[in-house]
Amino acid sequence: MPTPAPPPVLATLDTLIDTISTTHATRRRQLRMVRAEFAAALDRDALPVAARRDVRRLLADRTLAVYLRLAESGQLRSRLLHGKRPPTSAATNTARHDCLQLLRVAASLPPWRPAQEPVPPRPTPGDWELAMLRRRLGELLGGFLTPGQTRFTAMIAMVLDTEARAGELVAQRLTDLAPDTSRVRIVRRPQHGVSYEPEPEDLTLSPLGRIAVERWLPVREELVARAHGTSRLWVSVWLNHSGTPDADGNTVQRPPGMPLEQSGLLRAYRTGRHGLGLDTVLPPKLEQLRRAVAGQRVD
Q: Per-residue pLDDT averaged across 244-253, rounded?
């Protein structure tokens, strides 16, 4: 049976997205996310019939109300998250609203004013806090650091240079670093449920980032040697366990030097933030730091 042709409005929507003058990769990914969600809603016949033919009808208040209800509930995710389609985060909802405003302007429609404003994301550090954070990291790198602190400073410097998410950090491998550590490749992995392929980006590391990473690499090499090797850039510094008990309730012990999982990375962030006295310049969540760096790049 032949595959049904996509609604004509999607081709028009693609053209509209191409007219939006933004060079920021994050915003481009967000616009593609919105496009994929519109396609999913149209495929389910969840939007008004007229929206299948006319992009102005697709972006009309009535259509957007239906679309947002579905999108924010998670029903338009193209992939499952832990076997489910949970609601999207407050930060994603805000980004979605911003994209809709851009699309409305591009379609010569007045700015859209939803009946209920989205919940604002957690506040992010300002330029002053980011400048102070870089200064403090430089000072820390000039003194004694434990293996955990060495890893922490390198990860924070990496986020400052690349605006990497936690999931993007734990996926990094040694092969993502240039031989002279001047550049690093990041494979962008936005929120679960997007339909487009992750995008690799080749980015330059700052002098601070290079020093931090170069200080971490020999520590990592020693740790990995005990655990029989891994190509992951970020590894554990303490003995831990797999987290999955066997029939007797025992868990498999994992030596230091094993690939760092996302939960371990976020735990390391919280520990390093308090342990190194960076509470005043580092926000409680790594995602807040990432968004602050992303906002600074857009500015």
A: 59
